[in-house]
Amino acid sequence: MLSPRERPTEWKLNVDTMTDRLVPTHSAQDSRTYVNGLLKEAENHRALHHPYLEALVEGNLPDSQGAVRDLCHQYLAYSENFLQYLSATVSLLDERKHRDPLLSNMMEENGVYPNGDAAALGKHGIEMEWINQVPHPVLFKRFLDSLGMDDAWRHDHPYCDEAVIWGQLFFQCCRSGGAAQAIGAMGIGTECIVKQVYRPILAAIVGQLDVAPRDRVFFDLHAAVDDDHGEILQNIAADLAAFGCQRPLLRRGVLMALNLRTSFFDGMLIRTRTMTAANKPLAARSVDHCEASRALGSESFTTTSVNRDSLVPVPAKISGELVHRAVCGGGEAAAYSTSRGHPVFPVKLTTHTLSMSIGDLDPGEATSKHRHAYESLIYVIEGEGFSTIEGQKVLWKAGDALYVPVWNWHQHFCTGDARARYITGTNLPLLYRLGQTVLREEQQTRSAAGCGGS
User: What is the pTM of this model?
Assistant: First the structure.
């Protein structure tokens, strides 16, 4: 028990129980006015108007998409421990009327929502089935999983120092400074301004990433429908602000929470300024790779900067011959040639993902009409003719190359006065190694060259 000299002016001696108790020194209206002033101070804080958030929304960073993905990954270091911050705050509250509403908040963090929430959520495009009985950390990780940043990826990519420090110091702020400091930090410095923080983050996610609403619902929840939590904490703050000695502690908690968030954003902004494509998470690099492949196709072997940090190249052990001499000198695949209707000479080398063969067509000769569940690229060495690919006629001559998509009916015709010879490359071995069943189908009737390939 404090001595009389050590007691603040708000402490008085209860004669009946001979215990110290804290009595209010400010009216409820005055306390609410004080809390509103703290809210105004929080709303004008740099944490809510940070250039990092503005740059994410505007997309004017060196790697805007990578920056949004990086923020989502690093933010988990803080978000996944939110229940610990809330539990620490609840443990410091003496009155049940203050604890109980926050315990309900904890239930929502665990995916348990009041019956009346479905309608409010529906107005914001949030389906209850997306979130019901799903803890918020799981929602966040589901979002990261949709970006390719699953548990295995996160294990290999630890959080940055700024994210770790933010989470650890915020926890200390909620645990070690008393109830008023914790309510200031968790309430006015966090829950009351969460919508202002999450709205630009959500805008950046929508603008930069292709994520389904169900997968990003964690951010929709916090950007649209988190008012109740903030109001509850404002009421608790107003009760505490009735005691003059608690007001500095409330404000300290508010500033600690906001300054910690600002420091995190400062560090993230520095990271984005030096970020390149190599810093992107796996999913981002995969998207780039797909876009490059769509744009370049077979030519993509000339693009060597995609997925640079996805693996460490290791020389493969030589397990067979490196040259097949005189491929067309007696190496015809007899049964295959018969079914195809012309001589085919396979290249016999120990490749793991590619196959190659050489085909011959005499003047006026045509292959069978066929299709197969693998891609093929064809390069014409000699002669001229045409091919039909799903009914589309394609003329070719020596020096040309053509592409046959998966499972497209096609047929090749030699229309010149000399033999046509071409090299065919496929991805058949790769599909076999991936465990895929690869089909090939021959049409029984064959068309002559003069039939126009119909």
Answer: 0.58
